[in-house]
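Supplementary Note 3. Input sequence used for the single-chain structure prediction.
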Amino acid sequence: MMRRTRGLAELARLYNVETAYEGMGGERRRADAEALMLTLRALGAPLDEEGAGDALASRRAELDLTGMQPVQVAWDGALPQVRARFTHNESERAAIEIRLESGEVISHECRAEPVNARARGGWTATHSLRVGRRLPLGYHRLHVETSGATFQTLIISAPRLAHAPLATREWGVFAPLYSLTSNSSWGTGDYGDLARLAEWAGELGAGFVSTLPLLATFLDAPFEPSPYSPASRLFWNEMFIDVTSVPGWTPQADVQSAVAACRAGELVDYRGIAALKRRELERARVASAGDAAVMQGVEQFAAAHAHVTSYARFRAVCDHRREGWHAWPARLKQGDIRDGDFAPEDFEYHLFAQWQAEQQLGAFGAARHGGAASLYLDMPLGVNPDGYDAWRYPALFADGISAGAPPDPLFTGGQDWGFRPLIPEALRTSGYVYLIETLRHHFRHAPMLRLDHVMSLYRLFWVPHGIEAKRGVYVRYPEDELFAILVLESARHKAVVIGEDLGTVPAAVRRAMARHNVHRMHVVQFEAAPEAGEPASVPDEDVVASLNTHDMPLFAGFWRGSEIDDQLDLGLIDREAHQAALEQRAKLRLLLSRSVGAGGEVEPGLVRQRLLERLAASPARYVLVTLEDLWLEERPQNVPGTSSERPNWRRRLSRSLNEIMEDAAVRRMLNAIGERRRTPPVSAENYG
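The predicted structure, written as discrete structure tokens, is reproduced below.
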């Protein structure tokens, strides 16, 4: 074992793998040798059973032969000195050509100034190249040619600050679209319901409506309805299409009874609803086949949206084979799909469905001009391993690894989230095309975007298959480059970015968020500290403030401690820990009640409303209200760490959209929040 592990720490450093990290309790956790070795192999290290010696030599040689880094960041257009390795010659001149995104080419010569003449092997030296010109914002290509070599790199010229409207004090409402039903919907919410919610919220003065990811999912074979395990982060979920608004659709005699069956029960019947909508969308597609306007619309959509034809072919093969792509024959797995591999009508269906989803979501942009609230979307961290993205970009995703989280007080064994992480080096050499496409897909319709697990811009916990999640290790990502892309796309689309920064967050992440104007989250359940006698801190200005998130108990459940009872039932805590947690919750209830002037133990409704109004009166730029909190729903939409044990992502709201909009008490509570948003914020000294 000693021979196998010798040099492993140095090899890990060269691959940006952390050999230790600080846990939530401040304890130092060291990575074990097996986890490091499996992670390094997934990153491409040629490790064998003899140890790290050969792999170290190989990695050092590889780095020495890297003439220039594949990516350079030019903040505010100022490209710093570019480091390059080539044959050492003090009089070496380098011809530089910058091909701007616009197509313009900038060419000039510059002297390559040696900054480190000591080089392994004696044949290379590190030089500094000065470009000497401020670049326009965008993605440019730098080509460097010397007497003996040619190098190129991607330049990301980005503003330092993400977009943020001046003097904004907005509020909005949250509801998962799958749970939102109306008098006209077919068992789950649709894009039409989302638009109606935005219109109603806008009339009350809300600036945005928030929902869970609306991305394509597998709803047949394979089947995975979780919004956080999408089939792609580049395409929309056709289950949310409002079929009644689709050109060519007319109701048939059998539709009414089928819709009634899909509406039955408290839980969303994903399979039934998806099958019904597919049948009716296919009817609409066939009926509109002779409509010139429809055909032209589909053709223009396919021409304007990269990969949609490839995506439709991929999904058509899934329909035909009824299995994930990892089970496909080698030719199909490798991306070689031919016309005979799928039914043409399945391909045409997926193309038509994506066109309609894009059309219906596009209505938000026009509706905002009429006073409707804008869309606040959530971008998940990963994708389903059997999804299109992992098939389309196989070199970007690590094999034999899952992303996850280290141990914490609740999940003492760590977490394995089941999707493959992106490989940092592969992202860089690919020019970040996939990430850019993903951001643009969301920003087309969402002026506000929340990034799930924003810590992944800095590092991500990798869990090698076959070992316990708690033994995973952290892999570092090129933070500067990732933030540059995020900020550039935010500025170009005039979209606000929010980072989900809850849990174990390195201080460097929050410093970077502040430096680049990426908003943080202020969640009362996370901020409250009964052991310190503090109900909650004052929200900073650049945050989205709320009582909870979709992964937390709703306020009434939190007040009662229902999630603590659930943790006992699930075996996550023992009875002693359960009793201690309930006692802590009782202390917190008292603190929260007193902090809002409600006295001792009171009903949750009064404390909930005063806490929301307190957040609304705070300096926080955005306040988010969960609709279910307004009628004190206790049941959560998701219980983290469970799948089959709890009906996650399936529970409908107990009230329809029509009932919510007609509820005078709901309107009164939201009006009170809006009133406090329109007044100057309360100072920290007077907060609470």
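Residues 2-63 form one domain. The chain has a mean pLDDT of 91.
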